[in-house]
Design brief:
With 133 residues, the chain is mainly α. It has helices at residues 9-12, 26-29, 38-56, 65-71, 76-89, 93-109, 117-128. The longest helix is centred in the middle third of the chain and has 19 residues, at 38-56. It is globular, with a radius of gyration of 16 Å.
């Protein structure tokens, strides 16, 4: 794995999702897959993209900060979870908006009208995956 400490904080701050993916053992690779078929995943992603276009006229990835504030409002528990993470990890305003954008996408994939605590929690996990090393 590349040394993450060589990447500057301001650059990492501009990346929405940061995850470490472990190497897969050759024995596991040769087994039959037991996950969802790609067609099912593709349909869920297409439905989420359609929902985004209907709601805001563009996909979540293209939302401005002002649009994130308008379309990515978490419920009360979600807001509390995000506030706690922001304080705990001392993240910037930019990180705040990126987490909300990812949480909105997670909620869209789950067909949830509002961003809930679970969606915010998952988005926080994607954000801090490499930061805590």
């Amino acid at each position: 794995m590349p040394n993450q400490s060589r990447v500057s904080g301001p650059l990492l701050d501009r990346i929405d999702m940061q995850m470490e993916v472990a190497a897969v053992e050759p024995d596991v690779l040769s087994e039959d897959a037991d996950g969802e078929p790609s067609a099912v995943i593709r349909a869920r992603v297409q439905a989420a993209a359609e929902l985004q276009l209907q709601r805001q006229g563009k996909r979540n990835q293209y939302l401005t900060t002002r649009e994130i504030d308008q379309f990515c409002k978490p419920d009360k528990p979600g807001k509390a979870r995000l506030k706690h993470a922001m304080e705990q990890f001392q993240w910037s305003g930019r990180a705040y908006h990126r987490i909300l954008r990812v949480a909105r996408t997670i909620a869209d994939l789950a067909h949830a009208e509002r961003i809930g605590e679970r969606h915010v929690g998952e988005a926080v996990q994607y954000r801090r995956a490499l930061r805590d090393r």
